[in-house]
């Protein structure tokens, strides 16, 4: 299976921006894939069809689509000379100082309450506002003038502010209590190291030297879910990578990430992702420097 690399291409800024728009008569397509990054597509000509959950979202000139992380999607040009601007980024990388106690898996879990995508047609005022910022970001990345990285970082702050203001993206920092996360951080690290093994509430309680009931309450306050649910979610996230980057069987993956049986793994995975592990296995997982 081919693995697509998602790499930042602006010095000092953890973001990937498509380069110069070169119209072509050929009709290109990108097969179904996922990545850990938020993706923004802004149509600049022709028509690009984006497929998510068997829904087709036509992206035309002036339209904007925001696709959330780990959402399986594919794209296909349906008109010749189709062009679009692409941005890919992770908020906790752009604003690292605000997420000192949020690791990769916790950030993905906290962000999972988001809708899968938002389509903004060109006629809306908010679309025009966002499109203008996206166009400025793209122009800076293409021209690479002096201090363009600093300018792009500033534009990204404005872009994020507008996405929050219009409730298009979920404010990750609103989804957790920093002080509470610090208190349960030893448990989060323990789970990340020992997820393939059986983990009980008693084991977690011993880590903090607190009783089970209090640990459960504290952990849910910090992450939004009970410890056992969090453990299974980490296992699902770990399984996703194995499903799309290895030739291991479903049973092997289930055992590798700590599930007691393939049937239990299938049930938990489908509950979280809406599709079975075997279907998910056909998706290309995009990984790279932004992860």
Backbone structural class: alpha+beta
Low-confidence stretches: 1-5
Tally of structural domains: 2
Distance between the termini: 19 Å
Q: What name does the CATH topology of the largest domain carry?
A: Jelly Rolls
| Secondary-structure element series | EEEEEEEEHHEHHHHHHHHHE
> Which strand order do you get reading across the main beta sheet?
1-8-3-6-9
What is the name of the CATH superfamily of the largest domain?
A: Regulatory protein AraC
Oligomer: single chain
By DSSP (H or I, 4+ residues per run), the number of helices equals 11
CATH architecture identity of the largest domain = Sandwich
Taken as a percent bin, the fraction of beta residues is 15-25%
Principal-axes shape call: globular
* Rg, alpha carbons: 20 Å
Beta strand count: 10
Helix content: 40-55%
Largest sheet descriptor: 5 strands, antiparallel
The average pLDDT score comes to 87
CATH class of the largest domain: Mainly Beta
């Amino acid at each position: 299976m081919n693995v697509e690399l998602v790499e930042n291409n602006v010095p000092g800024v953890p973001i990937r921006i498509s380069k110069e728009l070169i119209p072509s008569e050929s009709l290109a397509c990108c097969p179904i894939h996922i990545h850990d990054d938020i993706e923004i597509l802004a149509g600049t000509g022709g028509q690009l069809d984006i497929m998510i959950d068997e829904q087709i979202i036509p992206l035309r000139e002036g339209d904007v689509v925001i696709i959330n992380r780990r959402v399986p999607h594919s794209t296909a040009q349906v008109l010749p000379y189709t062009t679009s601007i692409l941005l890919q980024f992770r908020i906790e990388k752009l604003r690292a100082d605000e997420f000192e106690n949020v690791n990769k898996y916790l950030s993905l879990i906290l962000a999972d309450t988001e809708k899968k995508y938002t389509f903004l047609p060109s006629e809306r005022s908010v679309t025009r506002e966002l499109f203008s910022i996206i166009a400025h970001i793209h122009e800076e990345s293409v021209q690479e003038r002096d201090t363009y990285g600093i300018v792009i970082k500033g534009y990204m702050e404005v872009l994020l502010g507008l996405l929050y203001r219009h409730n298009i993206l979920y404010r990750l920092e609103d989804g957790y209590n920093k002080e509470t996360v610090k208190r349960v951080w030893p448990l989060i690290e323990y789970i990340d190291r020992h997820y393939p093994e059986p983990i009980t509430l008693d084991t977690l309680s011993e880590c903090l030297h607190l009783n089970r009931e209090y640990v459960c309450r504290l952990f849910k306050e910090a992450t939004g879910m009970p410890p056992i649910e969090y453990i299974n979610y980490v296992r699902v996230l770990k399984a996703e990578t194995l499903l799309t980057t290895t030739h291991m069987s479903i049973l092997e993956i289930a055992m590798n990430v700590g599930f007691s049986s393939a049937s239990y793994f299938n049930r938990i995975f489908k509950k979280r992702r809406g599709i079975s592990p075997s279907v998910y296995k056909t998706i290309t997982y995009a990984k790279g420097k932004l992860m």
